[in-house]
Design brief:
968 residues, 8-stranded antiparallel beta sheet, 6-stranded mixed beta sheet, 20% helix
Length: 968
């Protein structure tokens, strides 16, 4: 007899509904197996044939951390294309490479952590490179395109499963795990939630990742908004993955909970489904979950709910239907099509900021001097893959104009470092040392990649080595040996010329020269002056460099004392720049940032200014040659004076084809059509505080900024010219706004134009944006050709969040529609009258006032009402704050006021513009921030208060106000 094959369990049957398959699989898992699924690295269940699974594959602009892959422009560069069709194709290419790489390396995951939809509210944010725009509409449009590309087109199966980062209101690296973003309801609903909402509603998102920070006093990993908002936007099960180590932060750094069991349970109940903590070691998280269960903080139902969400993603990825998965055999990797797409994306991301007197494009045969610290660089960032191909601006210009027409000067300072003994730091030869790029082998956690120790440590000798010194700003220096390797420090503490580029989670290639006037560690003798005596501090370890018997190393206090160096400058960078600039027809100065230095994850910038070293080079080039072009290659905006510079461009770090793309734009092979995705401010003084998230109150972003920017949102020039005409607008069915206008290419070359449609509500009684992007379209037009651009928009896009009703409202009145080439370059306009819903006074007698639902505030901070939900308001710093509530209707009259407060202090109630308080509430102090008490006092107004009045609440002292009510 032949043994019969046992029937496949229902969870293996693709004909069954996914929900039934998940129910079947969950029922077969033991409790321990289900709990184990909640860590990032979910183990295999061999008895059921279920494979191991991990959440999280970085794929922000290409497959990251897993070795060589196609590298596309940084996200902010993709945002600068304003081209959803292009970005969707980029997402498709990235997801195909994810699949192809997984086929040969099962460490590559299909649950991709991308894109980042945090809005670029503040240009000093260290992770500016990861977002798309300061505008929620543009951000959601680009993010939706990328997620659709990552997901694929099959109705059932997904090529990859995108997770949006980082929920919510997260724009600072400074104290990112302990700072709270105070987000008023209007900013929450009109700005921060909006980018997530519109992307999720588009249907190609598998989940979100909460951010490290707190919002309104409550950590994002226990955010009530996950349930109240996120999960209501789609019928799909969304997988919420914690950020790395964030679950532990709830106790360890934030001290929000007393025990890890409490914290883990609270996060799971709030909606976190997968815990990214302690790397591949799941034991601590599993022990916390088991402890929470045994303490009654969790139920099995809580566990199962999260397991089902993870399994929902795994089923969509085809894991349990390998024969039906249409993406199982995807092999597209580093294809000619992907290389061409990388170049196309880099070309479309270039923004022409200024072009006086037809400086650009450069004519054939032009003698070009290309200079600057980034002129021969193709930089990657923390979320890049390892480059397979690379193109620098210098290489691109060589290829386009011919090497005989191009000269190069990097502009580094050429220096030697002399010791107190009169010797010089020396790089010993490293025969037969392999040339290994950082991260080429791939790593699940590249933060753990160690520095090289197979190369000899630096020594000191009579001749020494001449180093290329770069000051990247704020005193951060790199030193590069003649063979191109950067000085770096490995785990053994020795200084070596060993790194191909600065990089790593903790950068080991940066130093500071610290003036040293003391003679305590020896004497220079006849060498140098007090003004040129320095300690050399290694930034990564925080230690000073010393010269020991076994080589140069960072001092640990037990060996040689810190060395005192004299900096011997053989040549300043500007000297080499002047030489080549004087011989050229045109100088192209390539300036910008290294994405691992001064502005990156964990590190915000402190200024918009271009670093002094690069300003020196720009000034030297301009002094030597009036025809100077500034090409900024950076992850963020700069405040740089271009008054005397005839032409300027900006591009984000453009990936593997960056240099070719820039050269083709400079040569006119491509007419630039990138547009700025965020405001370029003229000065640091234009910026609010980094932690000020109230874009309305502090007039942030192009939506509210009232100053004059260096370059406005949406700005970008072309080698062609365009005319706008015939703007019309009409409403249909009281639900839709139809807008159309024509755009014509009036120039001499085929070019792209990005037509932008904005709205303003000039009659609004509340603060509304100066103008707000409604829609945009990138179109290609030959010379003399025009096209009609039409948009059909829901009238809901004109609504605002009305705090008086706790919901969106379309205000009646005039709305001005503006079409043009940027937020400030408006070419045509028209006005539509909308009926809308008239405002009504707040019925405070019936509903009272929720403290956080203010119209305006001064020096107030929103905090958590409880650890689970709700908001309260407190004076920032525990001092004094004022809250304004307009048009409060007291009806036939009230005589008493009641306040719900915690802490210590008082509340003054003032009506309209009166000076005297109508009431003063002084509650008895309470012990903790959540120990609320109720205090009631009569209003000091004979006969009470009747009718409609503005109410001002003045808070004094470290108290929390939850709400006030009126009665009597």
């Amino acid at each position: 007899m032949t043994a019969q094959t046992p029937p496949s369990p229902p969870f293996r049957d693709p004909q069954l509904p996914t929900a039934k398959r998940i129910d079947d699989l969950v029922s077969r898992l033991t409790l321990d197996e289900r709990i184990a699924f909640l860590h990032q690295f979910a183990p295999a269940v061999e008895r059921l044939g279920v494979a191991a699974f991990r959440t999280g594959q970085e794929a922000l602009h290409g497959v990251a951390w897993m070795g060589p892959a196609t590298v596309f422009p940084q996200s902010v560069g993709l945002g600068a294309t304003w081209n959803e069709q292009l970005v969707r194709r980029v997402g498709e290419a990235v997801s195909k490479e994810v699949r192809a790489m997984r086929a040969r390396d099962d460490r590559v995951g299909l649950n991709v952590w991308a894109p980042t939809v945090n809005l670029l509210r503040h240009p000093l944010w260290g992770r500016n490179e990861e977002g798309y725009s300061e505008d929620p509409k543009l951000t959601s449009a680009i993010a939706t395109a990328y997620t659709r590309g990552l997901r694929g087109d099959h109705p059932t199966y997904w090529r990859t499963a995108p997770v949006l980062k980082h929920w919510l209101a997260h724009n600072n690296e400074t104290g990112r795990d302990i700072t709270s973003s105070s987000v008023r309801p209007r900013v929450l609903h009109e700005y921060d939630l909006r980018a997530f909402r519109e992307t999720v509603e588009a249907g190609a998102v598998a989940g979100v990742m909460p951010a490290y920070n707190l919002v309104n006093g409550r950590p994002n990993h226990v955010s009530p908004h996950l349930k109240q908002h996120l999960r209501t936007w789609t019928d799909e099960d969304l997988l919420v993955c914690s950020d790395a180590a964030a679950p532990s932060n709830l106790v360890d750094s934030e001290h929000y909970f007393d025990t890890h069991e409490e914290a883990t349970a609270a996060a799971l109940i709030a909606g976190v489904d997968s815990f990214t903590d302690h790397g591949t070691d799941s034991s601590k998280i599993l022990a916390r979950l088991q402890g929470a269960l045994s303490q009654g903080l969790l139920t099995e139902e809580d566990i199962d709910r999260a397991v089902r969400r993870q399994l929902s993603v795994r089923f969509r990825l085809g894991e349990f239907d390998p024969r039906d998965d249409p993406y199982a055999d995807t092999s597209d990797f580093d294809t000619p099509a992907h290389r061409a797409l990388a170049q196309e994306a880099a070309e479309q991301a270039v923004v022409l900021l200024k072009n006086d007197d037809g400086t650009l494009p450069l004519a054939p045969g032009t003698r070009v001097a290309v200079v600057g610290l980034l002129a021969d660089e193709c930089k990657t960032d923390w979320y890049s893959g390892t480059l397979i191909h690379r193109s620098t601006p210098l290489e691109g210009l060589y290829e386009r104009f011919g090497a005989e027409h191009v000269e190069f000067a990097e502009g580094v300072d050429r220096v030697r470092l002399r010791t107190s003994a009169g010797t010089f730091l020396h790089v010993p030869p490293a025969e037969d040392a392999p040339d290994v790029a950082r991260g080429a082998e791939g790593a699940l956690d590249p933060a753990l990649l160690a520095g090289r120790t197979d190369l000899p440590a630096l020594t000191a000798d009579a001749e020494g080595t001449e180093f290329a010194l770069v000051d990247w700003g704020e005193g951060l220096l790199t030193l590069r040996a003649p063979d191109g390797r950067y000085l770096s420090v490995a785990e053994d503490g020795h200084v070596r010329a060993s790194a191909d580029q600065p990089g790593g989670w903790v950068v080991q290639e940066t130093f500071r020269l610290e003036p040293h006037a003391s003679d305590s560690h020896g004497s220079h003798g006849s060498h140098g002056s007090h003004e040129n005596r320095h300690l050399l501090r290694h930034v990564g370890t925080g230690r000073h460099v010393c010269v020991a018997a076994d080589g140069v190393k960072v001092a640990d206090g037990n060996e040689a004392p810190p060395e005192i160096f004299e900096l011997i400058v053989a040549e300043r960078g500007e000297e080499s720049v002047k030489r080549v600039a004087a011989r050229a027809d045109v100088v192209v100065v390539v300036a910008g940032n290294d994405p691992h230095i001064n502005g990156r994850e964990t590190e915000d910038r402190t200024t918009l200014r271009l670093p002094a070293h690069q300003r020196r080079l720009l000034e030297a080039a301009r002094a030597a040659n009036a025809r100077t072009v500034l090409a900024l290659v950076s992850a963020y905006p700069y405040a740089v004076d271009v008054t005397d510079i005839p032409a300027a461009l900006w591009t984000a770090h453009g990936g593997q084809a960056a240099g070719t793309a820039l050269a083709r734009v400079l040569a006119g092979d491509v007419s630039p059509a990138g547009r700025l995705p965020q405001t370029w401010y003229a000065d640091d003084a234009d910026l609010p505080g980094l932690l000020d998230y109230d874009i309305i109150g502090s007039r942030q972003t192009y939506l509210y900024f009232e100053g004059t920017p260096l370059f406005p949102f949406g700005h970008g020039l072309s080698y062609a010219s365009f005319a706008y005409a015939d703007l019309t607008a009409e409403t249909r069915d009281d639900e839709t706004l139809r807008v159309s206008f024509t755009v014509a290419n009036t120039g001499d070359v085929t070019a792209d134009e990005v037509a932008q449609l904005y709205v303003k509500a000039p009659e609004s009684p509340v603060a509304r944006p100066r103008r707000e992007l409604l829609a945009h379209r990138r179109v290609t037009l030959p010379p003399g050709v025009s096209t009609t651009i039409s948009f059909e928009l829901p009238l809901s896009c004109l609504e605002f969040w009305d705090v008086a009703i706790g919901g969106h409202r379309l205000a009646p009145g005039a709305y001005e529609l503006l079409a043009g080439a940027s937020s400030e370059d408006i070419r045509v306009r028209t006005t539509v009258q909308l009926t809308g819903t008239p405002p009504s006074p707040r019925p405070v007698r019936q509903l009272g006032l929720v403290a956080a639902d203010f119209d305006e505030q001064r020096d107030a901070e929103i905090v958590d009402l409880t650890k689970v939900s709700g908001d309260a308001v407190t004076p920032a710093g525990g001092n004094e704050a004022e809250l304004l509530y307009r048009d409060c209707d007291f009806g036939t009259g009230v005589t008493e006021i009641t306040a719900q407060v915690a802490g210590k202090g008082l509340v003054e109630v003032v009506l309209d513009d009166e000076e005297e308080a109508a009431a003063v509430l002084t509650p008895a102090p309470t012990a903790g921030p959540y120990d609320y008490t109720t205090v009631r006092v009569p209003l000091a107004i004979d006969g009470g208060v009747h009718g409609v009045h503005d109410v001002r609440l003045r808070l004094r002292g470290p108290l929390r106000l939850a709400r006030v009510d009126f009665s009597g």
